[in-house]
## 1
Amino acid sequence: MTAELSAADCEQLAARGIDAREAERQLRLLREPPTPPRLLRPCTVGDGIRRLDEAEQKALREIWQSDGAGADAVKLVPASGAASRMFGPLLALRDEEPFPGGAELSRRAAAGDAGARDLERLWRELPRFPFFDELAAVCAARGAPLSELRERRDGRRLLRLLLGEDGLALASRPKGLIPFHHYRDRGGSRTAAEEHLWEGAASLADEEGVARFHFTVGSEARDQFAAELAEASDRLLRARGVVAEVGFSMQGPSTDTLAITPNGEPFRDDDGSLLLRPSGHGALLDNLGALEARWVLLKNIDNVQPERAHELVAHWQEVLGGLLVRLALEARDHRPLRVCGVVENRGEPGGGPFWVERGPGEVSAQIVERAELGMTPDPAQEAVFASSTHFNPVQIAVALRDVLGERYDLRRYVDERAVFIARKSHHGRELLALERPGLWNGAMADWNTVFVEVPAETFAPVKTVFDLLRPEHQP
């Protein structure tokens, strides 16, 4: 117990597996954030980024295939994110009281109102979404045929049936369980999670036709994912003869972090207890380290494309994996290794590869995200960040064991200074939240890192529902 943490606080923390000293460390970080990393220059082709010719690509794929690396590899997909962010403006509009009428919606859309503009686009392009047939079925079952809703432009009913619990409940699903792609010739759609099985089968299947996958999910959604992927695995087996072995894990409660008020006090919930929040994807480091595999192909849940792109994606997964295997066998120092695919920067939100000074004379190539520059970044550092030529699509191959097969202790290679502090709110009250060093940022800061340019066509993130209308996601 400390001066600002009561006995009840310490008991609450202990129930999550959080030591009081760790809680004090987090409060210090929130009040006195570490100095951000100093960006020297972006990594570019020939200066931190490798560009591989066709002969090199072929040789690396052969290493991955001939060494049977797929038999000791797993595809890791962080999938705990909620889909609610995909529908943000539409959710805000749905909850308005009273719901605006047609003329008011048109006026607001013309004035640039995000919710009204998104609803107009939703009406216009609804048949192009991969969940259209599912929505039509649920509308019919609720006595509100979709054709009639569209004719009457009943926006409130549409949004309730699309997003709410009395309909498809898309806004309360995990992003991984949102339909991403529709296949007309098969009469159905695939969720993002299922598409990852089909995409990974090509580069992961071993000689016995087994491909291994691991999804990190929210504890409340584990059963939903298990049911969805059991059916998806069965479809994959019937169509391709590939056996998908799927595992799951949850972010540990001991990785949750505290928050503070704008005045620097520990943020407390309405009942007086400490607010403990999930601490970002950096909390998944233990999940990664616990995998029973030597090689891991890491990819975000929302970066997956329809079948027509799987051959290209598999090609580059094997190139990155082959380079990982070759470098791991040549390694002389005892540090974990990662090979990161990067694409040309086309303005997507997120981070990229930079040469970073992390201490006097300590320069290394790192993935840096905008949030790492701090809440009030230096204009010169902003300019360096803006000059980035490449973007991190989270297409990463990592080695979890050394040349002798010994498992790395991944916690030894974290830069604990590389935390994120973000302004958030809870029940309408402002707070400062602490996120752990990101999984592919500070959590891997002391890894051996290699950046490889991969085609932009391998990258198709879905951040809003309208990203599903981009050509790369359409049939």
## 2
Amino acid sequence: MSILAGIDEAGYGPLLGPLVVSAVLFEVPGEHRDASLWRMLSECVSDDPAAKTRIVVADSKKTYNRSKGIGILEETVLSFLGLAAPETPARMGELLKLLAGDEAEEALAYPWYQEQDVAVPLSGRALGARSQAERLRRVMAERGVKFLGVRAIPMFEAAFNRGVAETGNKQELLFNQSARLIAGILKRSGADDLVITADKQGGRDRYAKLIAKKFRGSRVTVEEQTRLRAHYHVRRGNARFELRFVMHGETHSMPVALASMFSKYVRELYMEIFNRWWKPHAPHVKRTAGYAADAKRWLKETAEVRAKLGIPDEALVRQK
């Protein structure tokens, strides 16, 4: 058997809200390690956001925006989560704890993330996620595929600012978060054949030095380094794995696309909590998604109330 892992992020560019990096794991028969999971599971999974009867697994930028709503994103996330968890939590805080583990505790240091007693799912479309999960489980079993789980790491504003100050740039910060997930995958996986695919990170083309720095004592063999793709074989003691960074990885790898959706969903849950907390403090200010232009509008309109509340910018606003 082979283990296929996908890693992707959401929230790399915004000024407000967390950066979330997620990893998902699948087990597949060794002869299918390079096959398309979309094709193998086409009976119940589609990369077309317009699909009505199948679970959509695609780049989160194609499956979610404010006009489309969170329905597609939430149905997919909760369907796959149904394969790994005995039952889906009914409250947002419980769901975030399930996805993020101990990392979710860090949110409680920020007042605008503390009110997590919100019912989930947020959309009616996701109410059928449990039955979708059973259908998905059946098809995957027929193909010899297993979903092994997901981990999402949120990094909140003040921690993000400290991390950028320490590394000097966002690219290395993002890689460090991905490396934490890779370390967890190595600890969990007992497979001799592990392939980890990630979307290209911040425009970086070369990763060998970063891999060697984060996984000290490793032997890193460069197979390919181009603008479109970077491919490495890594040996660390008895552990061996392939690590691939692919431009537009969400369109080439279903695990990467699914990781993108988990990351986006976790970020949107935190932004939902964020906006709910701020509403009574600034009732006439429209919600924000946290991205540059809209975040600047929101910051301007909340400047007076933030000063009254004594909230420092370094705890709220990401610096890069």
## 3
Amino acid sequence: MALTHKQCQNAKPGRHSDGGGLYLLVKPSGARSWVLRVQYRGKRRDFGLGSYTEKSAGGVLPIERRRLLSLTEARDKAKEGRKLAKAGISPSLHWRSLEEAEKPAVTFEQAANDYHAHVSKSWRNGKHGKQWLATLELYAFPAIGKKPVSEIDASAIQAVLLPNWLSKGETMRRVRQRIGAVLDYSHSQGWRETEAPMRAVNQLLKNVKQPKGSNFAAMPYASVPGFWLKLQEAEQSIGRRALQFLILTLARSGEVRFAKWSEIDFDAAEWRVPAERTKTGRLHIVPLVPEAVALLDDLRGLIGEDPNAPIFPGNKGKPMSDATIAKALRTTGGDDFTVHGFRSSFRDWAAETGQPDAWAEAALSHGNPDKVEAAYKRTTFFNQRRDVLMPAWSAFVHGPSNLVSLAERRA
């Protein structure tokens, strides 16, 4: 027997049939909703239609209102649901896809604010969090802020960066990183089909003439985990192992190529780079993360550990050439970047994740340009590098940087 409007209003807790598989479900709390019970792919299934409302609205309704159904509207929707189920189409999935298609597109500005709201909670430096968003507000939002994230391509990003690429290179590099992080996050949220087209952006900017003294071409830090995975999956060679060690230790190419087994203290998990081979002219002690120790341990099992022999030998047991590491980078998909640029990738990562500048500078073995301050401030923040900074960098390199915390493994 079909329901009446009055029966729907006064119905007690339980299921009340309107016929044709349509039921009014009343909960003990008094909440009312419509359920369609129908045969779907050989099985009896229940599909939710929406909540009960007394009055029909009519006309074209917003998505939220279409989930409130009067008796008449519920019958119409149930009729449609029976046709879909008979055709082998899930009514729930069909209606959900229609709703998704009608939702307004997420803009870059909305995505950036959403991403920032998530990741900034984990940043130690509140000032950095404000600056992170401020750079996008200043440089990116005017050009692409109102543009749907699904439509932002390499040329759109180039249009943001190019006007200030030569005059404000460091700032624009950070803007590029942040745009990439937002787009990767958007991909993970289903707001765009692809990840950030940063490789294409780098290609577009590649032909822009740089002034003398410009920085080494650095891989965007968000791309480092993906590149590391390629290194691991590629056929192993001494050159690729040297490159992996360089990325984990943040050392300069020459420091790695001329490293000797006598400089490694496996018990303390330290690499003591002698003063004569550092740019600062001082001993640089590098805390080795477990992954770096494992890499060395595996290598000494293959080639031995003569104290005076190079860890990464080239031809005839001599230290490998700089070209060997560069080739390892190039043949693993990093042909747009330089080996030295990984130090810059790390520096960007440290800045973006709120790591203290002093720790990051110490990890890179940078000298203090202030001679007076350098004379008094001699700490190398070794404990902080060993216990916090380097393990965090290694964890980022090896695994997904929480989507939110990444936009995390490229999201």
